[in-house]
Specification:
2 copies of one chain form a homodimer. Chain A is an alpha/beta fold and about 300 residues long. Chain A is about 55% helix and about 15% strand.
């Protein structure tokens, strides 16, 4: 495809085109991913998550600017579960990061969850692969860490930043253990506010209480709006990357993620087979009537379908 | 099985035993459901849902007492997503409805969601079928209507009561359309509180705005704690049952629910096949390494697995 060639040459518009094509059509997505496969696996993926109001967008801006100043190319996928926009232009290009979006070394894509019911992570993964193939050094996935699906998305990342703010108080306690456990670096943003030290202490205590950690995540205080602490944060990100590579953890994570992806793809195909079998000649309708009329039980009907699928 | 015979004779202990057996072991569940199948389909299932603090438990108590006074047998499945208890004794028997639990015509089961990750509705459906076969005239499923999974559970019901309280104000507006749409009867509990009329008016307005309703759900004001309005509510439940039967809606709902259940069962079996195929001789591990080493792309690997599954 011509667009793929352009994208591999670093054309931002081609990138956007391909991401949209992959979103709109699963077959197109498959074609694209098949073709770009050998170009993937080079970008380092940073997930940024945390409660609404934690200042994740501002933090993302500052981190990206810092990386760009180092001469890196950065792709951003902003997942906003409350946004009705998808397809990426409005939120990404207008409201936030207006100057960044104009930078030739930065690519921004917003994804609203509306219209992606239950399947956003698939689209995020495809967009990630396209940006990876396009040669972005870092790809940042920013999500609001509220639901399980946002947590799932952020789990694709190599390095996960968990952003918190002073004054959450009880909320920190109520953050589910599962969410605490996925953080590789804890960032206390707005740390010029009253209570920042207490929040940092609380997070540190929670981390100390968590057993079975191979690596104790650092807690970093920043004031993103004033660009304070960002350099330190970047250092922590880099030492996490070092750790991931040296410990073999990077390979392990990517292998695990790939396993899940393969199983998901197989299940998607099998689901299609189930649907085509049960829809055929209203088979499901007539079988269900047999269950309701007590001629057959539900497991007998299931077994009949399974038999016909295997033939 | 001896327990099934006892359960069919109305033995409460046998009921509890079978529900626990079905929870603990999917094969046991299949065996039980296969055997009791012809005895199911007779109970009328009432779902009671609404936000925390709406007084659903008290309302359930009063509704159950009323039905028992009419000479009916009533089963209750209380789904509490925040409760660590499952297996049904503690919440159900001790804290709530102590006198009801002793009534020979009432069966109470509590299910906490911990330990059921993502699959509570399966267990609820099995418990429902066992109670149905045991001859309970009404089965009440009480859930806290917060997450999608609780909504899914309550959708199993024939008649769904949506419980609200005065003073929710903005919250009512924010109740998702999808949740409003599943209510068959809207109950304003604690309607002796200030603002009850306004809440009723708001709910009525929302219902009037909802298009494409074959039947306009009634809005019923009650004060469950004082037993006020319960008789009226029971009347509304009964006229809904009448409506369901006469309009053919009952058959339609049960048919749709059964379809979903069959498809879910088929998918569960196929998932087992995927797992057994991919786990065999660490096949998934070696294939994933081929992807990460860029020898194959993910779709090639998927297709290989699909081929081996079909053979």
């Amino acid at each position: 495809m011509e667009w793929i060639k352009k994208m591999l040459d670093g054309d931002k518009r081609a990138c956007a085109k391909l991401i949209t094509a992959a979103e709109n059509n699963p077959e197109e997505a498959e074609k694209i991913i098949r073709e770009i496969h050998t170009h993937t696996g080079n970008a380092h993926v940073i997930g940024i998550t945390g409660p609404p109001g934690a200042g994740k967008s501002t933090l993302t801006d500052k981190v990206v600017k810092h990386l760009v100043d180092e001469g890196k190319r950065v792709g951003i996928i902003a997942v906003d579960p409350t946004s009705p926009y998808s397809g990426g232009s409005i939120l990404g290009d207008r409201i936030r990061m207006q100057d960044l979006a104009l930078n030739p070394n930065v690519f921004i894509r917003s994804m609203g969850t509306r219209g992606y019911l239950g399947g956003l992570s698939k689209y995020t993964k495809n967009a990630l692969k396209i940006l990876d193939a396009a040669g972005y050094d870092y790809i940042i996935i920013e999500t609001v860490g509220v639901g399980q699906s946002e947590v799932d998305i952020v789990k694709i990342a190599d390095t996960i930043l968990m952003v918190m703010v002073p004054g959450l108080g009880d909320d920190i306690q109520s953050i589910k253990a599962g969410i605490m456990e996925i953080g590789d670096i804890f960032v206390i943003n707005k740390s010029d506010l009253f209570g920042a030290d207490r929040t940092a202490t609380e997070v540190n205590m929670m981390l100390d209480l968590t057993m079975n950690m191979e690596r104790r995540p650092p807690v970093v205080k920043v004031v993103a709006s004033k660009n304070e602490g960002i350099e330190n944060l970047i250092q922590e990100i880099k030492s996490h990357i070092e750790y991931l590579k040296e410990s073999g953890e990077l390979d392990k994570r990517r292998k695990n993620n790939m396993k899940l992806e393969v199983v998901e793809l197989i299940e998607t195909e099998l689901r299609k087979i189930v649907i085509s079998h049960t829809d055929k000649e209203n088979k499901l309708d007539s079988r269900v009537m047999e269950i309701l009329n007590k001629e057959k039980n539900i497991y007998e009907v299931r077994d009949e379908f399974l038999k016909s699928i295997k033939n």
